[in-house]
Every structure is written in structure tokens, then in C-alpha cells.
Amino acid sequence: MKRLVSLVVAILAFLAPVAAAFGQGAVLQGGSWALGHVPCYASQGGQTIVIDCGSARGGTAGSGASEFAITSRGTGTPPYVGQGTGPNGSTFCLYDAPIDNATGYHYLCLSPNATGGAGLLSFGAAGGASNIALNFNINGVAITPVTCSGSPTSGFASINGIVTHC
């Protein structure tokens, strides 16, 4: 028995440097990070380092993520229609509060195929939050969407270069 224990200890002592070498391929954290930021991968001398990609303002930490590929998943045969978990089956959503917030939240969501033949941009309030306007800023020009009241007409209106039909 004593001989078996000595053999196991000798094998472990022999393998210890090998096990330590596996750590050379581990991903290291480089620098500070912020909760909610996406990680970016960098390389220094063949070593992979995870850094903070930066804020939405485009901070220099990682210069932001270069791209996102969001692919819908679902049941049945693709393309998948409206099977996202966001409002109206959306697959990509931005929220101004957690969706279980006691006073509600606002959402802005996109889906490439929400209704089976049409993409969708959804904006709204849920969970008790009050409705707010959706505005656009194109090339530094604030655009307020046209709202039509009364009965629809066959005329067209152009406001700030946007043509709408009421």
C-alpha cells in the first residue's frame, strides 16, 4: 500500500508542470470592465485577452463590438416567423428598464420576419409605463412623425421631407 501511494505521488509530481502549461491557453482579463458592456477579444503575443468593448459612446477601451449576428431560432422549418421572445415575436430588443420593473418599461425591437412576409420595427410601452413618442434624427435633423386625425383622405403630406399618406 505504501508503495502504491508513493507511485501515485510520483505520477502527480511528474504531471504538475504539464497541468500548469495548460494555463497558457487560458483567456485573461485585461484592464477594467463595466457591468453590461460586451467583451472584446484582443491578442498580445499569442495570448488571448478579454477587454471591455466600451460604452455606447464609442469609448476607446475596445472601440466597440465590430458586428453582431443575431440569427432567429425556432421550431419547424426556417425561416422562422415571429418566434423571438420580444414584443410581437421580435428577436432584437432595447429596453429602458428591466421587463419585470414595477412601473413598466419602453421597448424598441426589430425582427426580420415577424409576420411571415414582413420585417417589423416595434416601439411601445408595457407593464404600466405611459406611452411616449418615437422620433427620428436623420443627419442631425429632428424628424417628428406625422399623425393623422379624422377620416383618411387620398391626399399626401410632406413634412420635413417625409412623404406620408393620411
Plain-language structure description:
The protein is α+β, with helices and mostly antiparallel strands and 166 residues long. The chain has 3 domains: 35-65, no CATH class; 69-133, no CATH class; 135-166, no CATH class. 13% of the residues lie in helices and 28% in strands. It contains 1 helix and 10 strands. It has one helix at 2-22, and strands spanning 28-29, 39-44, 47-52, 92-95, 105-111, 120-126, 136-138, 141-143, 156-159, 162-165. It has a 3-stranded mixed sheet with strand order 1-3-2, with no helix packed on it. A hairpin with a 2-residue loop joins strand 9 and strand 10 (162-165).
Offer a concise description of the structure.
The protein is α+β, with helices and mostly antiparallel strands. The protein is built from 1 helix and 10 strands; from the N terminus they run H-E-E-E-E-E-E-E-E-E-E. A 3-stranded mixed β-sheet has the order 1-3-2, with no helix packed on it. A 3-stranded antiparallel β-sheet has the order 4-5-6, with no helix packed on it.
